[in-house]
Write a structure and sequence with these properties.
The chain has 19 helices and no strands.
Length: 465
């Protein structure tokens, strides 16, 4: 799979870019659509058919909704059927095994068989994308897309197909037909792609190694080592997912698309509310637009708002994975947000900003404990380690490893803030900015290539969600 990374960077992507730009403009979506199918088939040749089923369901639903727009009851029926089919496909492939395990635990005497079905890569993302189109057509906020190639291109766009960001149809509807690629946009895309690649390869992968080492060290790591470990995972998941998002947005720019920003330095937040405005922005936007607001949002009093928030965060946890730890993770953040909405935000605003930062970071880091451990007993053992159950200090076997990673931990801390971006934007002299850009891109590419060549395969964490 390391070899596959090289194939993508040095064979697949260059060939696709050449094919795309030599194709006449009116046929470029067709080129992209074919390339998208090849890309998805590369990993899962058979399951590309599943994605095509999703494309057909929502394309047909859009056509029918457009033709029956004046008949409200029929339009609502078409929408309901489309949503049921979308969620049915997602539920079968993602949750049927989890449901079987849960029923077997609750009702062991029924001997319910557990189906083991491989999760199609990206199904959570492209299902939400196709549903956004169908719902928006029903709401009459977007025009019906009658060109199957254009719609298929939207759903299957390989830059963000696998792990987001979740691109709503209304955000790219105009770009699908009338985008005009330019050199500046392409250059910006290359820079952003390399930034994302560096985040993933140089930071996320290395933080993952430290986390695995300290987690497996057990009691010898002590509470201090456990905290360093979970902080390393905190950096890993951020740089892994935001790195992929940067790469996806950068690739989109290379093909003339502008996708929404998915991360905005979430670890500088002063509350959990602010954190979720900065983390996985596309998912938060989707749940707000298609679940929270339709349920009533905050328009029907605090009590109803709390119920609506509870539903959204239960579903947010469930969306991330078919396991109880993800549901607990969603409920955990839902409770924190409800507490902040009720009174805590007002209190935090009266305190020094540093208090808000410390509070938010502690609860964010503890939240990643829930997120990581699917085995509840293992989760509890690790949580106990965090609070001194096996002593507080690291052993002499673990300490040298942590010391060796201190420079990288400091680098991860700095990169997770806007510091370098702020310094870069203060450079007014254009020649100096060009030097920084060119040297940064070349250095990033060289270091990432060397790292990929010398390490084992480390997939993006969000591939499995």
């Amino acid at each position: 799979m390391v070899f596959s990374s090289f194939i993508f960077l040095f064979v697949f992507l260059p060939i696709v870019l050449v094919l795309y730009y030599i194709t006449p403009r009116r046929f470029r979506n067709l080129t992209l659509f074919v390339v998208d199918l090849v890309f998805y088939s590369w990993g899962e040749p058979m399951l590309v058919l599943l994605m095509m089923v999703s494309v057909v369901i929502n394309y047909v639903a859009g056509i029918l909704l457009g033709a029956r727009r004046q008949k409200k009851s029929l339009s609502k029926l078409i929408l309901v059927i489309a949503v049921i089919l979308n969620l049915g496909l997602l539920g079968f492939f993602k949750y049927v095994g989890f449901l079987g395990e849960t029923l077997q635990f609750v009702l062991p005497f029924l001997n319910i068989p557990i189906l083991e079905i491989s999760l199609p890569i990206g199904i959570s993302f492209y299902t939400f994308q196709t549903m956004s189109y169908t719902i928006d057509v029903y709401r009459n906020t977007v025009k019906v897309q009658k060109n199957f190639i254009d719609f298929g291109t939207y759903v299957s766009l390989f830059p963000q197909l696998i792990a987001g960001p979740i691109v709503r149809y209304q955000d790219v509807a105009e770009q699908l037909v009338h985008r005009r690629e330019n050199l500046q946009q392409f250059t910006d895309g290359v820079k952003l792609f390399l930034i994302g690649l560096a985040k993933k390869v140089l930071l996320a992968n290395q933080m993952g190694v430290l986390w695995d080492t300290l987690r497996k060290s057990g009691e010898s790591a002590g509470a201090l080592g456990a905290w360093v470990g979970i902080i390393a995972y905190t950096f890993q998941i951020y740089f892994d997912f935001s790195g992929y998002s940067d790469m996806a947005i950068g690739l989109g720019k290379m093909f003339g698309f502008e996708f929404i920003k998915n991360f905005d330095y979430p670890y500088i937040s002063k509350s959990i509310t602010e954190f979720w405005r900065r983390w996985h922005i596309s998912l938060g936007t989707w749940f707000r637009e298609y679940v929270y607001i339709p349920l009533g949002g905050n328009r029907k009093g605090l009590g109803r708002q709390i119920i609506n928030m509870s539903v959204v965060w239960f579903l947010t946890g469930l969306w991330h994975g078919a396991s109880w730890n993800f549901i607990l993770w969603g409920v955990y953040f839902g409770l924190l947000l409800i507490i902040e909405k009720s009174f805590l935000l007002k209190l935090l605003k009266k305190l020094p900003a540093v208090c808000g930062h410390i509070y938010a970071l502690i609860f964010i880091v503890l939240g990643w404990v829930l997120f990581y451990f699917e085995d509840m007993s293992e989760m509890m053992r690790f949580a106990a380690r965090l609070f001194g159950a096996n002593g507080w200090m690291m052993s002499s076997e673990v300490l040298p490893t942590v010391i060796a990673y201190i420079p990288l931990l400091i680098a991860a801390l700095l990169v997770s803030t806007p510091l370098f971006t702020t310094i870069y934007h203060k450079i007014k002299w254009q020649p100096l900015r060009m030097v920084v850009d060119n040297v940064g891109c070349v250095l990033s590419m060289l270091l990432c290539t060397a790292s990929l060549a010398s390490s084992s395969y480390n997939p993006f964490l969000y591939f499995k969600f």
